[in-house]
Sequence to fold (508 residues):
Amino acid sequence: MGIAIGSDQGAPGEYKGRMTLFVVLSCMMAAMGGVIFGYDIGISGGVTSMEPFLKKFFPEVYTRMKEDTKISNYCKFESQLLTSFTSSLYVAGLIASFFASSITKAFGRKPSILVGGAAFLAGAALGGAALNVYMLIFGRVLLGVGVGFANQSVPLYLSEMAPPRYRGAINNGFQFSVGIGALSANLINYGTQKIKGGWGWRISLAMAAVPASILTLGALFLPETPNSLIQQNTDPQTAKSMLQRIRGTEDVQAELDDLIKASEISKTIERPFKKIIQKKYRPQLVMAIAIPFFQQVTGINVIAFYAPLVFRTMGIGESASLMSSIVTGVVGTGSTFISMLIVDKLGRRVLLLVGGIQMLVSQVMIAVVLATQLGDHGGVSEGYAVLVLVLICVYVAGFGWSWGPLGWLIPSEIFPLEIRSAGQSINVAVNFFFTFVVAQTFLAMLCHFKSGIFFFFGGWVAVMTVFVYLFLPETKNVPMEQMDRVWREHWFWKRVVGEEYDAGKMEE
Fold:
């Protein structure tokens, strides 16, 4: 029940084994952590465009949207309280990710996933039952704790379970799951918005409990990764048995030896957050900060959180706005699936460069259309509304096969074991911090920049595409425990880490 991936001889530096059904099922269950993240991203944008929801919790925004004829199209939804509803989750997630780092390292990836599912479940229940804005935002904070733990542990879990040759495809399953979660949320929003009593938003918020329940119950049955078993001082034979089971071969000694060696180095590290700032880990630290930062300043979460509001800004009705979000959700999920199929063949760099150019061109075109066709009052013609939707789909597709999945894949595969939990925590924290900043400021930026907002994000896409071209080495098919060699062979990073590596060898 597996796909053979290694010959009996094995290429130099490559472990033996195959893709087993056991790995596929374990990773499918763990990837439910992506579904809860995606569901939340999709649901918050939809409910904030529903009139009964706005009327109950944000009456000022509702009145402005309905009755104020003087206000600019771009400023109708500007409200710090409304953006706090969306962004409070990411502040909680940012703080939770640092607690998650300690738990993930000390107790394993599985307990972190379990805590994440349980916290998200509690947040979903509170959100669905909310009677006032404080209950609503406290529910969002609990959801944030859940997402913080899940995003810290799930990408690590997937990368550690996957055979090196298929690590890209398996890990991209996380972003694919985010896409499925967001698409499910858009479909549910479209259905609940039509409920006559005006309480459909409660169903939308409470339905987050479904993927959270699956993740929480499923986590009870997940196996722990061999890397984590060794890190926790478990009997090496137990780790070896698990490795044999997930690789589908008895011959796992080479991989096990590398894991044990990495774990021994890891155990000499008492303060991984202090260790990660050393010069020899400089490339990994730079990527742990730069990649999640760039992922957020693509502007993707503007589309994810506020797509229905953006479409309503253009004068499109409530129902049509939610339908437009469904279309972009289908495109995003489909393109991430394509990325899963090709990431281990074409590599990470090619996808990031092609996706970056695609996003840049579409954002500039959207900005031009809005600048020329959408004034402060009235809407755009149906033809231009369709054109903007098509351009947003082109943009979402570019993100879906590049920065979307690879923004999680690359940081999860580049850290040596001794700083892996700390590195992933920094990655998640930076991601949440800038998600919070973008979510909190976007509606105000839309009001002030107007159509120029797309030029703003397009400028960042240009910068990050150049950054990838110059500074990101290719990591496809490289075993995680041998990843240090990609930095030593890179034109720039070898100047930074080469001396450290040579000094280390001399000491040995």
Remarks:
- Residues 1-12 have pLDDT under 50 and may be disordered.
- The radius of gyration is 23 Å.
- The beta strands are 2-4, 18-20.
- The chain has 24 helices and two strands.
